[in-house]
């Protein structure tokens, strides 16, 4: 049965048991995909297990504060960006948000301001990290890759390439004259540093390492060069903070989705998706919708399904279908490259975060120690006057770091409590390099761990942010959006292009285009 293009504003309400497209998961990838499809005239239902949408880019409220649970910044939502395209193409109102002018990286022996404006950033990096010919050539190579591949991303580049049409599309997105740059697909950031004789320079390699860990979850020696170049330049692509943080952003996004007739069902955990075309027996019930989504609060039939759940959860809910079978080899391959996060949420009096021009900082304590577990932290402070994020005279502070999942497993309750307290205190102490009085009179002091993510976002083991990107699991080797089952797509930070708000929004665009491409003739035909 084909997807109906009949205006659906009333259809979903009249027939709550069926829709054109069921979207599993109300994180950014899910809601962005649903928003696009709803705006294009399909009826969509989003199933979200938590009490509100947001997932790893969500929020929680406590004692008048609103804290971002994961993402604190939206990437590439400035005019012409990937995020801006989402808003424009779905008729969403402009965001009530500010562009960050950049942020500050605190290395063990120096401070580097990562200006958003390219000319200021260029001068700063040469001044603080070295101004040799090798440095200039290295940065020129990185800048070129970033420029070309940011443009290609904004043109909707499609990976992994599966069909000649994908290849043609990507050729256009990259541009014929930039085609030689595709040779960098097989190189890592470490390869590029070595080629320029810079792999041994602590400050440069460490700064890149911090940015790479934060954006593609990898190390300089494992991160694919092109992905790393995009990650290192996200501040140039524009970091946006919404008024009220993610709470403000989601309020706006969900309001718009519902105004278009979209049906967001919160507290509605998907248990199972069944394929009503019994492909094994070759039977097909003509006229029946293709899938049934089962939840504890009833089931919904849908012509198509977009799973915006992490890949392991998709495999669980689609058990017994070709979707789960197709995912198996990726899940086995990617298991060792999963990682977690710890976040400290502080509600503090204004004076504890006084004295800094920038509201966002990234800190490293020790060049010799591996990154993560506090040795690379991202600190976000709500803007002055943002009274959705914090009561008058106060500010919300989020401090996050990467953590190994293994260290959180098999702990007794007492051991867990100790580990959680210790890492929370460590993160706050490190942040006192920027804000010496931070946390002295905190109104709120809470710590989120992989256990918290598992509990509130249902991510197995609390693994967040997709996999640590390497040459063997990203781009052409990434988890694809199309599955082995026609009419069933997957999207989100465990699929290409990977983690982060910009990646999720780009993924939503590609998946929505694919769903719509199949819509007039029937997604299941
Ligand atoms: C600490 C931290 C900091 C970060 N900082 C940034 C940043 O500053 N900028 C940036 O761009 N990115 C950042 N990221 C990454 C970004 O937040 C994520 O990559 C992105 O939000 C993932 O979105 P998603 O939709 O793919 O997945 P999710 O957000 O995980 O969405 C999946 C949704 O599915 C729901 N769900 C799960 N199981 C079920 C089920 N069975 N039925 C129904 N619903 C279900 C979950 O509750 C969740 O809402 C950060 C991530 C973390 C953890």
Automatic annotation (TrEMBL):
Matches recorded under SUPFAM superfamilies: FAD/NAD(P)-binding domain (SSF51905)
Superkingdom in the source lineage: Bacteria
GO molecular function, one term: oxidoreductase activity
PANTHER family: PROLYCOPENE ISOMERASE, CHLOROPLASTIC (PTHR46313:SF3), PTHR46313
Record's protein name: C-3',4' desaturase CrtD
Species the sequence originates in: Catellatospora methionotrophica
InterPro entries according to UniProt: Amino_oxidase, CrtISO-like, FAD/NAD-bd_sf
BP-aspect Gene Ontology terms: carotenoid metabolic process
Amine oxidase domain boundaries: 28-516
